[in-house]
Amino acid sequence: MSTYRGTFEHDSFLGWLNLFKIRRLQVLYNVGERPPYPVIISKPTVGEVLKNLNKADFGLFATVTVLGFFASRRATLGLTTTEYMRQRGFSIAWNSFMMAGVLFACMNSNNRLTGFVDNGLQWRRKEQRLVKYDFTSEFEEGTIWKFFRLR
């Protein structure tokens, strides 16, 4: 277990369960906000995502695959056609669940590289917004566009 109550280490077999924790109600980040964890690679390639797979991603894949086996079996029991069609349906359904597991694992790895999932790093400064100077506010105040601001 991690130092935080109710969480798992980010690199453990059950580390993917941390995805169910609600950290913030905000899903989209505003301009100037940073992700919750430091960015390792801002735009990772497929090779970098695959190299970054760890035990948590394998645990996510294994869980989806095992649950997919039972769901596929249950879904194909009701097929009243031939035995070949039932086996073929099971094979297609289970392969679909395994591909979904691979997709979820790669998404988790990508999110870890881009800082949206716990990657074992912490920001040095805790404030959420970056300090930036707004160059357009003074200009907008003198024009008609001040009435159309979204902020």
From TrEMBL:
It comes from the Eukaryota. Residues 35-117 form the NADH-ubiquinone oxidoreductase 21kDa subunit N-terminal domain. InterPro entries: NADH-Q_oxidrdct_subunit, NADH-UbQ_OxRdtase_su21_N. Pfam families: NADH-u_ox-rdase (PF10785). PANTHER family: NADH-UBIQUINONE OXIDOREDUCTASE 21KDA SUBUNIT N-TERMINAL DOMAIN-CONTAINING PROTEIN, OXIDOREDUCTASE 21 KDA SUBUNIT, PUTATIVE (AFU_ORTHOLOGUE AFUA_4G04750)-RELATED. This is NADH-ubiquinone oxidoreductase 21kDa subunit N-terminal domain-containing protein. It comes from Paramecium sonneborni.
